[in-house]
Write the structure tokens for this entry.
Amino acid sequence: MLRDISRTLVSAANAVEQRFDRLRFDGKRRLGLLDPFEILPYRGHGTARRLFLKGRVLEERGITRSGRHDTPWDNLRNMARRFASDEVPSARVRASFGGLTAETVADEEGFFDIRFELPQQLTGPTRWHPVELELLHPVSPGGGPVRSTGQVLVPTGADFGVVSDIDDTVVRSSATNVLKMARIVLLSNAHTRLPFEGVNAFYEALRRSVEGRAHNPIFYVSSSPWNIYDVLEDFLNVHGVPEGPLFLKDWSLSVLGKHRTYKLGIIRKLLATYPDLPFVLIGDSGEEDPEIYLQTAREHPGRITAIYIRDVTTGERDAQVRAIAREASSLGTEMIPVEDTAEAAEHAASVGLIARDAVPGIHPRSSAPR
């Protein structure tokens, strides 16, 4: 009964939000206050026969590219603009790839999804494939064309895939401390936020596999909102962490608080998209990664080669994670809580996921006598 009431209230609140956004957009258009439109593509993924790409149509936000010497005020101003973004509801977008075209209509939040079913299988070593995007309707203020190019990853020559969390797994976020995390996110940028030591080298070693010649895909899944997509994409680039599709979250009322359901859903889709690939899962102990990854191992026996959990908690939570790891082991999947990246790398080398000679470069500790 309470669940039904909650669903009704959330549905009503979403309807009110969408109605307000629509009225705001229509009002700005009538008054001539709309800014020029832009298409923001997100890194997509696919197979030799299917391509998937997501993006969003927004009014231009006036965000300046971040730099190492930006002040906290510069970062705060840019972050405010990201969260104050004005979407273009029901925008019509055309995508083009290799002589094929597809059209889609964005939702009330400006999000759109493109899917290509390819008549012929992609061949050759190319892994990132460009998809051209063009806004068909509505016309951007000023009347100029609105175009963008998205990139879709199609894994070739892969031994396994990797699914990684971002906050407190790749980048230091203090997700267990809400105030500290807010300060880091709001006042820092891609240059000033810090990765965990050795992450870039470890992920590159996973991408290259034990022989050093593979091109294993790495997928980043986070509950961070799509509003900060550019920050996370820049962070990976700036710190040399291997690029890969990012799956973030629309912070609408209907999905808030559903971290486990959301993340499980993304992982299930990835395993279904690449049925012939085993996967390595990487996360941290701060939220629900151990529980989510255990459920994944239950649902996909034999598909999860290893699970690495960065230990960012203490006390009772550590005991819970150890118990979850024992259950994962009983299913045939090793879940390894690790203190640092070097510990994960040592294990990965021992089970043939990365080259042994890659370990010393991942963390200075790794090259010390044992």
Remarks:
- Confidence is low (pLDDT under 50) at residues 9-14, 366-370.
- Residues 2-30 form the longest helix (29 residues).
